[in-house]
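Loading example: each entry is read as two labelled lines plus one structure line.
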Amino acid sequence: MAQAFFGGVHPDDMKAATNEKAIEQIKAPAQVVIPMSMHIGAPCKPIVAVGDKVTIGQKIGEPGGFVSAPIHASVSGTVKAVEPRPFSMGGTMMSVVIENDFQDTVCPDIHPVEDPDSLTPEQLVEIVKNAGIVGQGGATFPTHVKISSGLGKVDYVLINAAECEPYITGDHRTCLERPEQVIKGAALLAKCFGVDKVYIGIEANKQNAADVLNKTIQELKAPVVVEVLHTRYPQGAEKQLVQAITGRQVPSGKLPADAGCCIFNLNTTCSIYKAVYTGMPVVSKVVTVSGSGVIEPKNIECPIGTPITDLFDACGGLKEETYKLIMGGPMMGLAQYDVNVNVGTGTGAMLAFAGDEEKYEAEPHCIRCGKCVGVCPMRLEPVFMYKYLMKGDVDTWQNRLHGMDCIECGACTYICPARLPLIHAFRMGKQKVNNARMAAKAKAEAEAKAAEKKEA
Amino acid sequence: MTDYKNLKLIASSSPHIRSGEDTRSIMLDVIIALIPALCMSVYVFGFQALVLTIISIAACVFWEWAYRKVMKKSSAVGDLSAVVTGMLLAFVCPVSLPWWMIVVGAFFSIVVVKQLYGGIGCNFLNPALAGRAALLACYASAMTTWVLPGEKLALFGSAADVATGATPLAMLKEGSFEALMDTYSVTDMFLGKIGGSLGEVSALMLLLGGVYLLIRKIISWHTPVAYIATVAIICLISAPEGMGAVDYMLYNVFGGGLMLGAIFMATDYATSPVTKPGQLIFGIGCGLLTVFIRRFGSYPEGVCYSILVMNCCTWLLDKYIRPTIYGAPKKEKKEAAAK
């Protein structure tokens, strides 16, 4: 059994609604809207124009920088528009709208790698880069950057299948139904990093998935180990997973690679498998559609860019009382204010709430119970962080209370009996710190320029 | 199909789910945990115990409501914290206390100690204990008249009508060990058939309540265990002549307000440290002070003042006893040490 990480909470996992339902293919959507940003970093430049014919897997977005990944068409058809559309991260984003011709024509450039076993790390990075693979746990960091920056530094490669957020069951079903993709993808990573073993971290509430994976590992004789982890949120948070499997701690303000670890989401691993063994870039996503507002919760595989309304239609629609739509899990997902958003590579779940999940206190009073201190996986003290922020003392919050180390997992806010908006306050605190850093940087640059001028 | 355009959506910051526990449910759990001890008090002292408790609760709720009304603040009565304060205030007063005195005590607890410092969570002293301390200062005689167990006080009766006597701790203080052991057996001490404040007499019932709070995760074991263990250990190693060490320890642990204080007062959220190590130190501090006051102070009982003193140290414990954050730079520390 793996080790424990600090703190954590046990929300009702709500997975029973979908964890026995096989992944369904959605009826092909009439049109898809593919945003040009599905990763952190610079958005892509669209390289198709209105009227162009596109095929599945054809590149339609060119990376805008180093920390970026190309974007591909997820259906075949005609480009109807290239314009800003509502975006799941808020606001609008330049998007390519493709009208589906329902021919499912695959791009002729797509072909599997001839000899997957002889791939060098550099070749794999190149394949991953061209396939537009990004971290699919939600942070959407480009995977090729992660691999190339970790090469040589890393002695632990971890696959994150913890799926600790309530409701979500996509990874669970993927392990049960497509274990070969997972294990072969993991084996590719093992070879790439030159490690003896790749660890797959999975929570104990998915024992059947762990068994299936173990069976596949034996059959394939793959250098992969399944680690069954405590069922506790946030087990799937990067730093907590590192602690649970390796016993190491990622240094404050650093990346897992600095602790010798490289972590890949389960879906990312499957995408690597697909890119190598079929040549297909990331064009589809398994999404758990669940929550009290959904008539018939399901796990659905759909093309990237599918409107979320198509997802709900595939699940019998929404209840009238639905008051909240969440892209992602209930602990860290983003509430959507516009129904016209679309599935992206980081979309693991679409939840609709119609019950009494929302518990709001208009005038919350901290009772100093200290429960937030007990559950914080980063061992911070949310109770004091909140108080200092409310007093406007960002300096103490940042330096003495280590506010910037908050991973925004939401455990403190979940447990808080006074229902303080803790995480919301910390996000604002981070924003203030980042703004101050930018301002300081701009000022330093301006001063350097002024000094240059003087010298000239 | 669903008309998605007509959905009225809330967009708020994550997390979107909350645990079912809130301030009100916590306070309700504390009230439930106090009920066994209240039942025992009614059994030992008669229905006057219940009446005094109800008056105290009503007074606390009234002062809370009235203060917030006058100050034009939102009503906070619904969180039930005033009810808990009311129960605890009655529990630390003698059953024979005149009703109007407890109303004065309630005023001090709720208005002066709690609301003037900003209301729930902002007070630095335990309201019930501060109320008791104020009453003891104002009405020393009434606050130290102890009805003997089994003397059923008539409703609204006065202490003059019934037999009163010294509490076990007072007898310990006087050094009359034999008289004490003749009057009250250790079993009496444990069950609560002794004189003392209204709610503190039955160690058994208070422990029951404590176990309930532990199971419901309202309190952690750190403060009560550290507190009681400290008192027990010091008593064991420093028993006076004329009494067995174990007996001396048991009379000290079951006597007075130790159980009530350790389980219900020292664990008060607002006035104790938020970290577990801080709570351990807080409990040990309470234990040391309690024994010192009992042994060397002018009062036979020290729980009330020891907790109030430690309340004043809470900010210090919170400031210096802090968790080491995840990923704290260990190497830098080592390097610094090497230099």
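The radius of gyration of chain B is 22 Å.
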